[in-house]
Amino acid sequence: MRILSKRQVKELVLYSPQHIARLEKAGEFPKRVPLGPNRVGWVEDEVLEWLKERLARREEPYRHS
Fold first, then answer.
1. What are 61-65's contacts with CB under 8 Å, separation 24+?
2. Phi and psi of 5, rounded to 5°?
3. Would strands 3-4 and 39-43 be described as parallel, antiparallel, or unpaired?
4. What is d(CA 2, CA 43) in angstroms, rounded to the nearest whole number?
5. Which of 6, 25, 38, 61 is the residue whose CA sits 20 to 30 A from 18?
């Protein structure tokens, strides 16, 4: 299992940290893992699965979710 940093997640999904936090709060993005008092990360497999779901829907008409 690999844990991604905030910077790695930002580079992978191309969203700002603020937008990632909004999606996460809305239940539309994998939840972060608290690693310490000032450190969080995301499970790489969960983020990659989130991306795969978007890739699978790319042929569908755009819908805001």
1. 65/28
2. -80, 170
3. antiparallel
4. 6
5. 61
